[in-house]
Amino acid sequence: MTQITKDRKRSVEALKRLLPAEDIFTFDFAAEGGLLFTCVYSDAVTDKTVLGDQIVRPLQGYRGEARAEEIARRVDFPELRLEVSLEKLAGEVLSGNPAVLFDGMDRALIAGTKAVFVRAVAEPSTDVAVRGPREGFIEDIKINSSLVRRRLKTGELRIDMMQIGRRSQTAVALCYLAGTTPQQTVDEVRKKLGEIDIDIVADSSYLTHFLSSRPFSLVKQVGTTEKPDIFCAKIAEGRVGILVDGTPIALTVPYLLVEDFQSSEDYFVPAYRATFTRVLRLLALLVAVYLPAFYIAGQLFKLRLFPVKLLLTIAGSIRDIPFSPSLEMLLVLLVLEVLNEASIRMPKYVGMALSVVGALVLGETAVSAGFVSTPAIIIIAFSGIGLYAVPNLIEQTSVLRLAMLLVAGSVGTYGIILSTAFVLLYLVTAENFGVPLLAPFSPVVKNDFKDSLLKYNLGSLKRRPVTLESPNKRRQK
Amino acid sequence: MISRRQLLFLLAFLFPVSKLVMLPAALAEHAEGDLLLPAALHLLLQTGAVFCALLLAKRGQSFSELLENAFGRVFSRILLVLYALFLLFAGLLPILEQKLFVQAIFYDTLPSVAAFAPFFLFLAYVVSKPLPSYGRVWDILAPLSVAAYLGLIALAVGETDFGALLPVGASGSQGFFGGTMSASGWFYDAALLLPLLKKYEYKKGLAWKGALSYLGGGCAVLFFLAVFYGVYQGTAANRLFAIATVAQYFSGITMLGRVDYLFVFALSLTLAFLAAFPLQGAAECLLQAFGRKKYLPTVYGVVGSALFAVLAIVLDYRFGEVLLALAKVFWVFPLFSVAVPACTLLFRRRHA
User: Fold this and answer.
1) A2, A258, A457, A468: least buried by Cβ within 10 Å?
2) Is the minimum CB–CB distance between A449 and chain B shorter than 8 Å?
3) Could you say which of A307, A421, A429 has the minimum Cβ distance to residue B257?
4) What's the pTM value of the predicted model, to 2 decimals?
């Protein structure tokens, strides 16, 4: 650590050596009392109006001697502190907080006048709610923290800041409720985050790799949300939340698979409706993964799976199709995945045209031309829709669907059952932060059934999830 | 650790599933309408054995420690190896049964041997996982099996003539003993509990609860046998795969297709895990006998699976002969599953 010296010019030169970039500016000015100052700031990320009005102007009127505390009092700015290390000073300047060095003092002022260029808080497009709050996180960690703080007005809410990324020095906030979140979990998360040594953290998803106990697993191990209400509810249950500067996607750990079958809206509608929709989501997911596979297995290996009339319809449709059932299904699936990928990335004004091309030209014409059969398109379309009933698991389930399809095409129904057994055994052994992924179903935790796939009335949810082992077990009387 | 609930789930809801595939036809062949009697005898014997096996857990020792205390170090190792060999021998029946079941039910035409090959990969994978993780699987499989069982019964019971089971004792002692001997290969559940010792904690009343759970599951098996025989009566012995055929006369099948297959598939998932259980038990015995190393469960799993794969290929069309052979050595099953737990309970701390 290099210390700031009393010689202002030498300190500025040393700082410039640390920050040789051309967008790091310095300017000198003198106070009325004759004291000389140098302000070092980053052009792009410093709010120069605030710097001029709130920092430089008051300092120009200063008539006293070179005493740091006195100078700081003169400035009277809330985000002001003194720093002795040149490296830390450089880090602050890069973050947008200018440094003010002055003669005769081995400390420098750091003013929190970072320019904040952010979009407005808006409803996240990935998690739209008909009822309930519509705020979503944005890319600024301070605003995101304020959204959390506004919902959890308690001294127990801790927001511990840290910086991750050798080059990006990305701000990361660890949010938890002291006394509610198990300290062991907090320590483990902090340890795992502290051990990350990576160049940049472009998004919170970079951290999930390091927070997972099985980093190369297909299975998701860290919860994600864009909504502050969900984030706060999870923290209040005893989880640790992680906000990352530059991304609206917040992380929560420990993660349970059942979380992704729940939506924030479930808590704002009657309990029976919430239960119904959760079960529906699970069924939709199962249909999405298994329907194409069973269709193929039935066609190739066990025709008696179909009722007779349906079998005749299918037989009529596939009679002139040149491809094998599995190849046909794979082709349709491939087209769906491509259309899906293109429609996400494509500019909105072309999106409509793409829908027309996808639905009419590709679908209708392919059937008319006899390339694919109508049942195949119906099944893949239904499967595609089912997949989006649980949007947070799309990456995993689409791969699983493809795997099931390949297995069904080569081994048949028994292959699907064995693959399910493999997946089941893998899932039951998966744990992260000591919490089983499939809880409360495996292991069975009776108390936690109340808010799993089932949803009891709010009045019945008196205890926090037992699975999370919160030291503060009761959440309401 | 396996929880008490998981153990009870295994006894009440999962063990019975293994008796629903080929056992009903095997019993019907020998005992006809009296098929419930040999099954009931086996179930009562196993209930007692399960009680003894669970009571052993009270001592807080593993199977090898118990044997060592009772019979000394060298003899305990020999017994453990013998036990592992027994479990491998006993594990052959569910695997062959499953292979035939899969070939007949999951395919319209006889598939190649390769179609069943992934099962042996699964077998090796299961054995490589620690036993307590198996307990978590039971949490998922138990409700699934119960739902599937109830679904099948609901579809079949309307076509059942329970009067076909009367008069009791019509097949005579020959039918009873023939049925008892031929069914032995399906009843060794208590033996599977011994390698689990020290993997779960004994709490007050566990032995009773376990025995009652097993008996409850046994009653479900008896009811299934009654329904099966009530549906097929004199031709029951020809319906080799009971779960796949018991509900096939459900009147809605013409309209809906084979909806009963949904339940059959769910039970097949349970059967896949149950078929792996003896090999896992054998691997655990060997681990206790020769020490634990991280790679050993995988090695035992791979070797055991390969062995079973070879046997499954060799005995591909000889299931009838296997059943006959099993009936000849029917005493092996009660010896290991009833006598061993009972004796271990009696020979307490002889060499301690």
Assistant:
1) A457
2) no
3) A307
4) 0.87
